[in-house]
Amino acid sequence: MDNPKIVLIGAGSAQFGYSTLGDIAQSETLKEGKAEIVLHDINPTSMGIVAKNLQDFIDAENLPFTLSATTSRAEALKGADFCIISIEIGNRFELWEQDWKLPLQYGMQQVFGENGGPGGLFHALRITPPILEICGDIEKICPDAFVFNFSNPMSRICTTVNMKFPHLKFIGLCHEIASLEQHLPKILNRSWDSLKVTAGGLNHFSVLLEAVDAQDGTDLYPEIREKAPDYFATLPTWLPEMIASAERSAGEEKPTRPWHERSLFKVILEKFGLLPITTDSHFGEYPGWAWDVVDHEGIVDFYNSYKRFVLSTKPKLEIKLTERVVPVIDGIINDSHYEESAVNIPNDGLIPDFPSFMSIEVPAQVSRSGLRGREIGSILPPGFAGLLYNQVAIHRLTAETILTGSREIALQALLTDQAVNKVQAAEKMLDHMLTLQNRYLGYIK
Description:
This protein is α/β, with parallel strands linked by helices. It has a domain at 5-107 and 116-175 and 323-330: NAD(P)-binding Rossmann-like Domain (Rossmann fold), CATH 3.40.50.720. It has helices at residues 14-25, 28-32, 44-60, 73-77, 92-105, 117-141, 154-164, 178-188, 221-233, 241-249, 263-272, 280-283, 296-312, 325-333, 382-404, 407-416, 423-436, 438-441; strands spanning 5-9, 36-40, 66-70, 82-85, 146-149, 169-172, 195-202, 205-213, 275-276, 338-346, 359-367, 370-373. Helix 3 links the parallel strand 2 and strand 3 (66-70). Helix 7 (154-164) crosses helix 15 (382-404) and helix 16 packs across helix 17 (423-436). The longest helix has 25 residues, at 117-141.
């Protein structure tokens, strides 16, 4: 494909713009095609700063890309082949803390408050409407474009987009699947290339479903179940390396504890026989009983460290692969038919009894025609499937709230959630949040 046009929506964020250009810069396919990169953001000042730094980097590295920036979405989207969305609404951490702490004040035992529970609902109600507006423009201006979403709450956003724009090529991507490549070779004392693994579920609520020897098909899960407890009990770091490195540099590295931020992780491994691909902070947002077993101290430590890292660390421009979107774009352009290990796409029968519009996280074959997910219903254990099925109603009601602006349906979405066990408190909490965040939630009546 000559001059593939890639539009970065939300490019006023240096972190997003820098890392995505670094990803694009390591792609031989996009360099050979002399990709056109367009930055779009509603904030011209921050976007202008990012654009200048990106252009300086392109010039210094002699990269064969053309770069432009515009606040006009119509101009940005004209002729687009690929659109990448990474937006947030308002002050990210201030609103996140409201999502997390206000429900706690009303007695709701939710964990983390970003993707699941009441906090996940409020986050979705804020951020999804502007993403729907973006998708509406894409459907009108460049309906054949592939659209990639980085924003959270991933599965609620993707499910709502699937309901509103069923023909859009909308794909959610999250890098947490990389935890398997980080840990499994060490647990099994094998190279990553010698393994064939399948993970699936919902974004931030996904588990390893199968692990076999790539050559002879030997089931490796019994060995994982045997060796994983000792491995994770002595894991030397409890933070993603980029954050842990910043902590060490600041002389603030926390001492490790056995199973730090993996108390719920340990329960899932022991009681369900399954290895989660994420830690307590995210996985704990979904099961109603998670509050009783998660590592609350570890979750708070992680949040505070992550917040400090984001607010104090200056983003770097490097030719370095940080997200999976560029390999997927390469696979589409080259019609490679390779398998991407985790994408968020409409169910369409991949898990029986799930509605077709429900966004699930599964492996998918990547080709010019799009992404074809792998069916996982036959290997989905009944116990974990039961945890997933509860989310179907919550996701549907979240989407219907966004699409209708109905307070009544928003309350139903809360009362369907296992983290909510108080009716009057839930209703008061909802009204409190609608008032507190009226600037973003005023459409709900």
